[in-house]
Specification:
Elements lengths: L3 E8 L1 H5 L3 H10 L3 E8 L3 H7 L9 H8 L4 E9 L1 H9 L12 H5 L8 E3 L3 H12 L2
Bound molecules: adenosine-3',5'-cyclic-monophosphate.
Length: 136
């Protein structure tokens, strides 16, 4: 059964730097997502470390946090039926070289780090990630 859900989306520094935010937002609305909230922010490395804490044991953690805090990002609350899964389908695989044609990471991603967008990976994490950016 489908249900209306919310998920967190981030347009990452590589995409904002290339001024792709309007194009990417259009891709979301074309797929039936409603952008309920959005803001442009530039987070500190400490905030990035808190956001990506689940990855703290990974070898790429430090670079990942430096990267997310390297420039402005757009954070959004996206809403539609099955938003978490549908957003992950639209984004495509984490590494743009593995992403299917038509997905955001295939179209806009540059590398596994500069993969243009982040999306929550489960409804539980969506709640945590939305709280992180919008309820503090
Ligand atoms: P994201 O969906 O934002 O979640 C964590 C990020 O870590 C991921 O996108 C990638 O940009 C980045 N990353 C870098 N190296 C790896 C890796 N080897 N495996 C998974 N994610 C990686």
């Amino acid at each position: 059964m489908s249900k209306i859900e919310q998920t967190l989306s981030i347009i990452k520094p590589d995409a904002v730097e290339r001024n792709l935010q309007d194009q990417i937002k259009q891709e979301f609305t074309n797929k039936g997502f409603e952008i309920i909230k959005e803001k442009k922010i530039h987070i500190s490395k400490e905030e990035a470390e808190r956001f990506y804490k689940v990855h703290e044991t990974k070898p790429f953690y430090n670079d990942l946090c430096s990267y997310l805090s390297s420039g402005p990002i757009i954070v959004m609350t996206l809403q539609r039926e099955n938003a978490v899964v549908e957003n992950r389908k639209l984004m495509g695989a984490t590494n743009p070289v593995d992403a299917e044609e038509g997905t955001l990471r295939k179209k806009y991603g540059i590398s596994i780090d500069k993969n243009s967008v982040h999306g929550s990976d489960s409804p539980e994490n969506a709640k945590i990630e939305l709280d992180f950016f919008f309820n503090h």
